């Protein structure tokens, strides 16, 4: 019996992993989950309810009731939502509450594609293919700046670069499921790649790991 195709994309903020993961999911007709949106949703709910970031129990309880429909909210794509996501993602109670949702999504009989920070190491260590997508901080900040400046003309590149560096440090140093490359993942550095070249590189990695399919 053929095993379901499970593909894990991990990497730091604005590395391009979400775009690549969504394209690969479409290529293979697989359901796709941007797990970062789960944490953005928790952060958004916490902000809306006025929850204290020190109240880890309340935040963990809020995370238990995140519904997939919340992930469609455009408010989750902004800079502030990204900052809150990075902060709540460092809370073990929040990660524990969202863990089973992600595991269940990953292990559908249809297969799946997920992107995040700990997919290949915690959520789906059994993934068929694992990619760790990265780029240098300046390149990632430029990409994110070009996305966010449309909605906030007062934003500066230096603001975004600072955000990126802070999030990198927070994601890599947290005690619960820190950002790290799985031992059997393939590194894809997109620093010097445009979107088309990055997509082709990701496709080549997936095909190679699947024996050319």
From TrEMBL:
Top-tier EC class: transferase
A biological process term (GO) from this entry: pyrimidine nucleotide metabolic process
Cross-referenced InterPro entries: Cytidylate_kin (IPR003136), Cytidylate_kinase_dom (IPR011994), P-loop_NTPase (IPR027417)
CC annotations in GO: cytoplasm
Reactions catalysed, as given in the entry: dCMP + ATP = dCDP + ADP; CMP + ATP = CDP + ADP
Principal subcellular localization: cytoplasm
UniProt subcellular location: Cytoplasm
One GO MF term attached to the UniProt entry: ATP binding
Keyword annotations from UniProtKB, A to Z: ATP-binding, Cytoplasm, Kinase, Nucleotide-binding, Transferase
Assigned EC number: 2.7.4.25
Entry-linked SUPFAM superfamilies: P-loop containing nucleoside triphosphate hydrolases (SSF52540)
Residues reported in the UniProt entry to bind ATP: 11-19
Domain Cytidylate kinase: 7-205
Keyword Acetylation set for record: no
NCBIfam families: cmk
Protein family (similarity comment): Belongs to the cytidylate kinase family. Type 1 subfamily.
Protein name: Cytidylate kinase
């Amino acid at each position: 019996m053929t095993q379901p195709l499970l593909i894990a994309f991990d990497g730091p903020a604005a590395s391009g992993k979400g775009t690549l993961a969504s394209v690969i999911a479409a290529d293979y007709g697989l359901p796709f989950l941007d797990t970062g949106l789960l944490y953005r949703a928790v952060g958004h709910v916490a902000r809306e309810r006025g929850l204290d970031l020190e109240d880890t129990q309340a935040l963990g309880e809020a995370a238990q009731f995140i519904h997939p429909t919340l992930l469609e909210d455009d408010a989750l794509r902004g800079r502030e939502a990204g900052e809150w996501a990075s902060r709540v993602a460092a809370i073990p109670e929040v990660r524990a509450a969202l863990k089973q949702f992600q595991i269940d999504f990953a292990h559908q009989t249809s297969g799946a594609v997920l992107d995040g920070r700990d997919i290949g190491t915690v959520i789906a260590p059994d993934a068929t293919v694992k990619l760790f997508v990265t780029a240098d901080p300046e390149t990632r900040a430029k990409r994110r700046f070009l996305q966010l400046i449309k909605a906030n003309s007062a934003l500066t590149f230096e603001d975004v670069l600072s955000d990126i560096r802070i999030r990198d440090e927070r994601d890599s140093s947290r005690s619960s499921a820190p950002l790290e490359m799985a031992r059997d993942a393939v590194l894809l550095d997109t620093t010097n790649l445009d979107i088309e070249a990055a997509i082709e590189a990701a496709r080549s990695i997936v095909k190679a790991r699947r024996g050319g399919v």
